[in-house]
Protein: histidine kinase
Organism: Haloarcula marismortui
Amino acid sequence: MTSILVLHIDDEPDFLDVASEILAQQSDQLKIITAASAAEGLDKLATRSVDCIISDYRMPEKDGIELLKAVRAEYPDLPFILFTGEGSEAVASDAIAAGATDYLRKGHGTERYALLANRIENAVEQYRTNQRAAELERVRALVSNIDQALIRASSLSEIKTRVCETISDSEPYRFAWIGERDPETDRIEPQAWAGVEDAYLDTIVVTADNSPTGQGPAGTAVRKRRIATSQNIQADPAFEVWREEALDRGYRSTAAVPLEYNDTLYGLLCVYSSRSFAFAEDEQALLSELGNSISHAMHSLKIRDELRAERTFIDQALDSLADIFYVIDSAGTVQRCNEQFATLAGYADEKISDLDALSLFPEEEREGVSEAIEEALTTGQSTIEAEFRTAAGKRVPHEFTADRLTDQDGDLIGLVGTGRDISERTRRERELQDQKEQLEQFAATVSHDLRNPLTVIQGRLALLQAEQSNEHLAVIETATDRMERIVEDLLWLAREQQEIGSLEPVSIDTAAEAAWKLVSDPADEAELYCDCGADTQPLVKADTDQFRHLLENLFRNTIDHAGRDVTVVVGGIFADATGFYIEDDGPGIPAEDREKVFEAGYSTSESGTGLGLNIVKRVADAHGWDICATESSMGGTRFEITGLELVE
C-alpha cells in the first residue's frame, strides 16, 4: 500500500504530538498531520486530500459526532475513526449511526496505537478499493456512453463535440477538448471543447515541439504517441506555463490521449479533473482504450466520407459524359447507369434499376443485342451498333461496347459498357459514300469522255509527225503528255486514294529500276544509280502497285524539275529508321518550300501537274511511313522515306 495521510484532530496538543509520533512508529506508511479543533480540522481538510481522519469525541465548540456529520456531508466515504477516552456505548452507537468507520477507546501503552494503526490501514485499504472500483465503473460507464455517441455520430465534428460533452458531464472531470496538430506551426489547435472552460483555450498556447509550451501532457502525447498526464498541476514544473489559468478554473490534474489509428494521428483528447492524482493506471488504461475507440470511429468516418466523395465524383463524372454508361447483370438487367442513359430511356432513377436492357431496343434489334451480351459474357468483350429507343419513341443509332465485369474474387457480376451516339458518324458515312459514288462516276467520265478523245488526239498527232516536222506539233505533244499525266493522277486520286492492299516483300532496287524505265526516255541523258548498301538486296513490306506509283511520281518529279540530263541515286537507310532515299544533282528545293512541295496543286514546273508529290505523300501516309525533302549530297534534292518494315 502507498503512503497514508492521516488527519488527527484533538483539542490536547501534547496528546497530539505523542500520538502522532507513536502512530508513525507503528507503520512507515502513516503520515500524520494534526489539528487542535474541529474547525481547524475542517479547514485543513478543505485544502489537503487526506486518506483518513482520527478525531477525539469531546472537544470544545464541536464534538466528534458533530465533526463526523460535517465531514460526511462533503466526504461520504472517507475513513473516519473516533478515537476517544469516552467509552460509553451511547457514544459508540451515535458514532456508528453518524457514519463512523470505526470506534476505538484511548488507552495506555503502544498496543493501543498498534491496533489503531492496523485499523487505519484496513479502513484506508477498503476505502481505496471501493473508491477505485467506483472510479473504474464510472470510467467504464463513461466509455460506454461515448461508444454509443460514436455509433450515432454522422460526422467528424459531431464525434469531437459529443466526446467532449460526455466527458465534461462526468465527475470529477470539469473540461475536455480535442485538437489537431498544425504541421506548419506545430501548434495543437482546438477543434471542439465542452465543460468549465471560460475561454481557457483562448488564453493558452499548446505545441508539440520541444519548447516550454510543448512539454506538457498534450505535447508529450503527440510526440510519443502515448497517454501523458499531469497528476498535480499545482506542483508539476512541466505545467508551469498554463498553471495559473488551469487552477483558476478548478483544474487539478489532466491527461492527454493521442487519437491514433494505423499510425495516423487523427487528433488529441485532453481531459481535466477537479482532483489531483485523478488518473491512476487503471483509469489511464481505460482512457487509452477510449482513445482507440474514438480514433477508430474517426478513421471509419473519414474512410466513409472519402468513399462518399469518390462515389459522388464518379457519379458526376459519369453524368457529365455525353455517352451512355451502364452496368447490367448476367441476365441483362440494368443495375446502374448514368444520367444520359436514364434521360434517353425516359425513366426515373428509382425505376431504371432492374429494367430489362433488351426492352430499350426495337424488336428487330433485340436478337443482335442479346447475342452481343452473350459474346461479352463469354469472351470478355463485344461491340455492336444498334438503335436505342428513346422515351420519345425516337430511334437513335449507337455503338455499344461491353466488357465482362467481375468481383475481387474473379466471379462474374455482369457487364459494364458505354453507348455512343453515332448519328453524326452515320450521316457522315452516308455523305462519304455519296462522295465516293460521285468520285467513281467522275473517274468513269474522265476515263471515257476525256481519255478516249485524248487518245484520238495523240494518234492523229503521231500521223502528222510522221509526215512532217513542225515546232507546233512538239508543243502539242508536250501538252498532250501533260494532259495524260493529269488524267492518270486524277484517276488515282478518285479511285485508289489511300487504300492499301496486301503487303508483300518488295526489293527497293528492283522496284526503282522498273519505275525508272516507265518514266525516263531512252533518248535523254538522265541516269539512275541504285545502291542500297547490301550484297543481298533487303526486302521491305509494301503494296506493290502503290509503291511503284510512289517511285514513278518521285522520278517524274525529279526529271521535270532537274532536267533530262539529271543523275539520280537510290540508296538504303538502315540507321535509326529503316527506309530509302532518292536524291539528284539538280537545282534543289529552297528550305522554306520543302514542306509545301507535298501540298496538292503546288508546282514550280510548267509541265508539272501539282499532284505528283501529293500522291507520294498519300501513299507514304497510307503505309504509315514518313517522308521529307532535304538537300542531297550532290547539292540537289533528297527525298527520305522512313518507317518501312524489313522482311526478315
Q: What stands out?
A: The radius of gyration is 51 Å.
